[in-house]
Amino acid sequence: MSSISRRDLLKNAAAGSAAVAALGMAGVASADEAAPAAGQHSWEVKPEPITEVAETVDCDVLIIGGGYSGCSCACNAAQNGLNTVLVEKDDVLNGHGVGGTGAIKSRVMDENGVVLDKPIEMERWVATCGNRCNEKIVGKFFRESERCMNWLLDLGEEYGMSCMLTVGSNSTVHPEASCYHMLFGGDFYDQYGFAKAVEYMLADAAEKAGAQIVFNMPAVQLVQDESGAVTGAICQNADGDYVQYNAAKGVVLATGDVSWNDEYLEEFAPIALQVKSRLCGDLGNVGDGHNMAAWAGAAFQPAPWPTMMHPQAAGMFHGPFLFINPEGKRFMNEATWVQGKCVGIMVNGGANHAWSIFDSNFEADNTASLEFGGGMFWDSFRAVGTTPADASASHAKTVKEGVENTPDYYKCADTIEELVEQLDVPADVALETIAHYNELCEAGEDTDFYKESHFLFPIKQGPFYAVEVGPGLLGVCGGIQINDDFQAVDANNQPIEGLYAIGNCAGGMYAYDYPINIQGNSHGRCLMEGKCLAEQLAGVSE
């Protein structure tokens, strides 16, 4: 299978997001909640218990949130015989959008001869997280992801889906494994697109197994007994009436991250406020689960919470070529991974964007670079078995179409002077920067930032191009402190009975930064955590 375009990958990313914009912080607390006092955050002020309940529903497991992790949990819980209810505050399934799913091993990887060195990949993961992640949780993903991924592949085949495995990166320092599983085809793909098809497939399989999925039902408060154990949750229906769900085996928070709650970002992930754009379309991700967990006594993982960022908030293409900031100056080694580019632009570049500048040889230069590096959006999402030239041809098309269709982000000129004049930079400084960069390329050594010599491509042959590179926030991957049984824990690391957290609202899997050596691991984590927790609650854990 040939590589696919970034446009195809992202065109459905915001599906269903418009409806959640109006939710804001609605449904986070009861109507009787007091406003936080000076110096207090909203999650530090526990609301008064809601007592006027119009309806009571009993179940084994209550799952709050209809994203990837919640749908995975609901499907597996129902298939294992549990009376399962999933409540979603929006009128559609509202995760980030699944896209591809990463795994340490799978039958598709076996078929393509892809073998990972688990000890090495684990070490890379932990190092990226500053050795601050919960290694028991990460280790569980490494153990369980193969069977979870194979289960998903089998389910996908039942629904008429096929899988494309995409290449990673050959980078010496930031390698990315070829383990990104993209599911295509079938009725749900045709109806919901690439980003949402898997979530709706899981939800459909859950309902066929007996699960109940209730939309427009935001959870507003957890129910606790005298010992502090969580026994259920209060939700609010479309009429404004409160519905109490009693969950005999547990309440699962699968409420997503805090990307659209600036109060949380200011406190726990301030760098997320510096991005050019929030690429996540799920505007309802405002920390509902985080709030409820905190009110129930759960602790948060230490700050800063890890962010997931991609540099595609403006133009889609980024390669190993020269970056200049709005001051016209170079500021980093450009041949790095997606997260590194975002952080470098904001921290070292001092802005929310940079310009990537290259000449007419960029297609051939990019192809040559992929022997030594690449990765997400640099090598494009191309299938294992295709060539770097396929990726570069796709990028060349993207750039040339961008010049024509989105000139704010893509620039082209016959001379370098004319190109620079189109940018928001001091022309004289930029021209001096480019001239100096060309000298480094000709010398074969980057004595400024020590970019590897095989990534040094001079900018001399017109026409010349510039692409705006803008850091975009995909998610804040963490928050609620959990143990390796997915139980929310308190400040003394003691589990809160009956309360679980999975997916991006849960901490521990990541810390400080987001590792991408296992491509798609955030989705793989959601699949694994949902499936393993459901089996655990059903008493069928392997």
Could you describe the 3D structure shown?
With 542 residues, the protein is of the alpha/beta class. It has a domain at 312-470: Flavocytochrome C3, Chain A, domain 1, CATH 3.90.700.10. It is 31% helix and 17% strand. The chain is built from 15 helices and 18 strands. It has helices spanning 6-10, 68-79, 107-111, 118-128, 135-158, 187-192, 197-208, 262-268, 288-295, 338-348, 362-369, 388-405, 416-421, 427-443, 521-538; strands spanning 55-64, 84-87, 100-102, 162-166, 180-184, 212-214, 219-224, 230-236, 242-253, 277-278, 307-310, 322-324, 354-358, 410-413, 464-469, 472-476, 487-489, 495-501. The strands form four sheets. Strands 1, 2, 6, 7, 8, 9, 17 and 18 form an eight-stranded mixed β-sheet that branches. It has a four-stranded antiparallel β-sheet with strand order 12-13-15-14. The radius of gyration is 24 Å and the shape is globular. The model is unreliable at 1-32 (pLDDT under 50).
